[in-house]
Structures are given as C-alpha cells and as structure tokens.
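Appendix B. Extra example for self-study. Work through it before the problem class; the solution is given directly after the inputs so you can check yourself.
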Amino acid sequence: MTIVSGSVYERIYAVVRRIPRGRVASYGQVARLAGLPGRARQVGYAMHALPAGTRVPWHRVVNAEGQISRRRVPGAELTQRMLLEREGVRFDPGKRIPLAKFGWKGTIMARA
DNA sequence: TGCTTGACATAAT
DNA sequence: CATTATGCCAAGC
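Solution. Structure tokens for the complete assembly:
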C-alpha cells in the first residue's frame, strides 16, 4: 500500500497555501516542502490542474529564477504579475523577482 | 496499455 | 548568457 495519504496534488496545494502573502516560492521549493524532491514538474502540473476559483495562491509560485513561467494561455502571465504586485511583490527590470527578499523561507518544520 | 506532453530544475557545454 | 541534455511523474490521447 502506498505510504502517502491522499493525493500528491493535495500535498502540493497544502504547501502553496502556506505561502505567506507578499512572498513567493519556486516550484522546486514547493515540491521539496511537499516532500517530493525533484518533482517540480508535478507542481507545475498540479497548478495547471487547479480549478477556477481555487483558494490556492498559485500566483505565488514562480520558477527558480524568480520569473513567471510561460503558460499556455498568453496574457495569463500578466495576471499573475498583477496579483503579486497587489500583494506587494516587486519585480526587477527583466521581470524578475528578487528571491533574496521576496523568496519564502519555507521550512519543512517539524510541525510545531 | 504505451507514447507524448508539460505552470520545472539542475548540470554541462 | 543561451542552448542542450537528463531526471522526474501525472494526465491526455
């Protein structure tokens, strides 16, 4: 039997939900915090599978360079950027986010 | 049932 | 810095 509980995506969503407002996390980091090291692609896939009106702050998830990943739907990147700016996240010239400042310090934490 | 695609990451060249 | 190659795994066809 499987060791995990629930689905893999649920874990990913749980981690994404923990991202504080005004902070961003990379796909790889989310995957790692979700206990799925190296499975960053699944994180992206999970985001894509998110239903409309979800409470998961998917917009706080960016790639390792702090840039918004290219999506299938053009213009959607701007939406994500708008949501982030609305939370106080600033973009550097080149559309990059200084992870040194806005990068979420996601600790795996031994569940306090 | 098996191959292809994909909101990625990291290393090598 | 750009491009290529490889690993990873779920969903779609």
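Self-check: The two ends of chain A are 28 Å apart (CA to CA). If your reasoning did not lead you there, revisit section 3.
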